[in-house]
Amino acid sequence: MSVSSNPVTVNIGPQHPSTHGVFRLKVEFDGEEILDLEPVFGYLHRGTEKLAEERNYSQVITLTDRLDYTASMTNNQAYVLTCEKLGQIDVPERGLYLRVIAAELQRVAAHLMATGFLLQDMGAMGTPLMYCFRERERILELFEMLCGARITNSYMRIGGVFYDAPESFWPALRQFLAEMPEYIDEYESLMTGNEILLGRTKGVSSLSIEDIVNASISGPMLRAAGLSWDVRKSDPYDIYSSLDFEVPVGTQGDVYDRYWVRLQEMRQSLSLVEQCVSRIPQGPVRAEVPLIFRPPEGDAYVPIEAPKGELGFYIVSDGGISPYRCKIRAPSFINLTLLKEMLIGRKMADLVVILGSIDINMGEVDR
Amino acid sequence: MYGIGIAKGLLVTLRNLFRTPSTVQYPEERVEQHSRFRGQEFSWYEERCTGCASCAKYCPLGIIEIVTDPSQQAIQDGDKYAIEKFDIDIGRCMYCGLCVEACPYDALFMGSGFERARYTRDELFIPMEELKNATKRPSTWFRPQLEGKGYDPQSGQPLGWKDVGRHEAPDYEAMQRRWADR
After folding, report:
1. Of the partner residues B60, B139, B180, the one whose CB lies closest to the CB of residue A62
2. Which pLDDT score is estimated for B167?
3. In whole angstroms, how far apart are CA B119 and each of B15, B27, B123, B124, B170?
C-alpha cells in the first residue's frame, strides 16, 4: 500500500531561534524531505554602505561594529586596514600587535559562539552553549578592560588603536591564556566523541572543493573541505607574516569538519595571542592621523580573515572627508550561496544543523 | 563501544556541577566593572567647556545640541562663549565615545553607569541642567590623566572639574594638525 502526500510549504523564520537572526526560509517539504527552498533576507538591512558615504572616515568605524556583531574587532581591523592603505599610513609596531591580540581573542569568542549555537541547534539544550558562553564572557571582560565596551568595541583607529592597554589587562590576559586550553579540552571530551553529535554531523552536507571555490565560499567552510587557504597565510596583513601558526584543515567538508576546524582554530588563535604577548614591543600605539582624515583620490581593497571567512572592504575616495563608495564583502552572505545544494534532498532536522554550521550572522548578511 | 562518548561527556558535566558558579545574582551582587567602561550619564564640566562644539561635530549621529551666545559673559575656564544649551539625546546614543575623543579641553567624559533605563524615549533626553547638577563619576576612557591616578569610577569619589585634570590648552597649530591636517 502506498501513501500519497502533497508537498507542504513551511515558513521558517524570520523570528525563529534556530535561524540565527531575522532570516526567513520558505521550505517545501514532502513529509520530512526538503523539496525546494527559498531564502529571504533583508530584515536587518540598515544600509551600512550608504550610511558610510555620509560619515567621515573615523565615524564609519562605529558602523563596522554593527556588521558582524559577534566579531566587532575583526570588522574594525578590516576597515582601518583599508583606510591605511588608501592614505599610506605606517602604523607603529605596538599598535599592530595590540590589533592582532584583539582580533585573535575575537576569533576565539566568535568560534565559541558558533560552536555553542551549533550544538544548541542539534538539540543539546543549554549545556554546551552555557559552557561556551562562560568562556566568551571572559573574553568580553578583557575587551571591556581594553576599550570600555564588550560588543560594540570601536577599538581600532586609522593608524593604530585608540589607546594602549591598561596595566591590569596583561595579568588578566595571561591568566586567561593559561586556563583556556583546558576548557577547550573539556569541550572536546564533552562533544567531539559524542555518538549523537557524530550521527547528526558526519557526512551531512558534504561539499566538494570545486563547488566551494566556484561559489567563492571562504573561512572554516572552505578549510573543512580540505583546502588550506587562509588570508593570514596567503596575503598576510598586520604582523601575521612574522607569527608562527598552522591552518587546520578537514577532509570531508561536512558539518563535523566545520565544527572540528573551528575548535582547532581556537587553539591556534590562543597560541598566536601568546606569541604576541611574549614579544610585544614598547612604544606608541597610534600614528598621527588627524581626526578628519582625508585620503588622496583612489581606491583600495583589503581582505582579512574574519572568523566567518574573507571579510573585505573596498573603499573609493574622491579626496573628501567621507568615502565616495564603501563596498563590504561580507563572508556570511557569500557563504549562504550554496544553501540549496546543501539542503535539497535532506531531512527537516538537518536544516537547522546545516544552517548552524555555516555560522551566519544577519547583521553581516543584510548589512 | 557505543556510549563511551556520552559517558565521557557526562563526566564533564559532573565536574562542572562542583565548580563555583560563574553567574552572580545581579541586583544584590555586581560583576566587577572596569574603569574604562563607556557608560551612560555623561560627565560634563561646564567650567571647562568653551562651546567649541567639537563633540557635536564628531558625533556620528549628531545627538549633541549646543547653542552658544558670544554677547554674554563666559563662565568657563577657556573664556570663549556663554553656553545656552548643551543637550544630549542618549536615546539615540551608541556610546562609541568619539565625542570624548574629540574634546580638546577635557570637558566631556563618558559616564560609568548602565542603569538609566526609562519608560519613554523623552526621558532619555539629558538637558543641560541635569548634566550640570549630576553626580560626576567619569569613566577613564580616553583620559590617561585619570587612569594614571588609578581612579575607579565605581568605588572612587565623584570628581569636580579641578580634580579631573587637563592637558595643556591646545594652541591653534595643534588644533589644525588634529582636525584637518592637509
Report:
1. B60
2. 59
3. 43, 19, 7, 9, 42
